[in-house]
Write a structure and sequence with these properties.
It is a single chain. This protein is an alpha/beta fold. It has one domain: Vaccinia Virus protein VP39 (Rossmann fold), CATH 3.40.50.150. It is 37% helix and 25% strand. Strands 3-2-1-4-5-10-9 form a seven-stranded mixed beta sheet, sandwiched between helices. A three-stranded mixed beta sheet has the order 6-8-7. Helix 5 links the parallel strand 2 and strand 3. The longest helix is centred in the middle third of the chain and has 14 residues.
């Protein structure tokens, strides 16, 4: 069942309608902040859930050495057509083909992490991200906010659809898009902050209010080793 849900999410994103919908050239303000602050010239960046290269292209233009990874082959195929200058690869955030302590920034934008099901698979991806991230490096990601009210007719419809299963804490919701159905992770910002901290990251900043922002951005740092651990290395 787990692999079936993950596979169906990927299939929805690989559809022609999805690829076209996500081929637009734009940046959210929180994404621009992360890239301009941490994805600068000389930095080595991993752009996870890169889609057709929307954020990867901006990171590349910013002067960073960037690799884009996405599990949806249709997205990567289209991205290579749009941006032949980019290094875009089909891949899985839970199994990254990179050495330990390799990247200065790992960026998982526009809720890509929330496509992993169940929560244990989301956790596996974060641990793999931590592995490939340099000590002192930044992991930035956006995620669905369970306390944000819907702003569109489709969002309101999905909100009522999921109301019987509503939780304040971590849970999954059904989303119906023109390109297919998705099963997406939701959490409130305080629980999410506690969770990412429990995974060994230091939360540097959250962009977005607890009720107003549908997709808060969490900016986290892989801490320096201290005390006895540093002396043993």
């Amino acid at each position: 069942m787990t692999e079936d849900i993950s596979r169906k999410n990927i299939e929805s994103f690989s559809s022609t309608n999805s690829v076209e919908a996500y081929s637009n050239d734009y940046l959210r303000e929180s994404e621009r902040y992360v890239i301009d602050t941490y994805g600068t010239r000389g930095k080595r960046v991993l752009d996870l859930g890169c889609g057709t290269g929307r954020t990867t292209s901006y990171i590349y233009k910013n002067g960073a050495d960037v690799v884009g990874i996405d599990p949806a082959e249709g997205m990567i195929t289209r991205g290579r057509e749009l941006h032949p200058e980019l290094d875009l690869r089909v891949g899985d955030a839970r199994h990254l083909d990179f050495p330990d302590n390799y990247f200065d920034l790992v960026f998982f934008s526009f809720n890509g992490l929330d496509n992993l099901y169940p929560i244990s698979e989301r956790q596996n991806a974060v641990r793999e991200i931590k592995r490939v991230l340099k000590t002192g490096g930044i992991f930035a990601y956006s995620s669905h906010n369970s306390l944000a009210l819907p702003r569109t007719a489709r969002g309101l419809r999905d909100w009522f659809l999921n109301l019987p299963h509503f939780h304040l804490g971590p849970h999954y919701r059904i989303e119906r898009h023109d390109f297919g159905k998705l099963i997406q992770y939701y959490n409130n910002v305080w629980n999410e902050e506690r969770w990412i901290t429990s995974e060994g990251f230091k939360l540097e900043k959250r962009i977005g209010g607890p009720f107003s922002e549908r997709f808060p951005m969490y900016i986290c740092r892989k801490p320096q080793l201290g005390g006895l651990a540093s002396k043993l290395l």
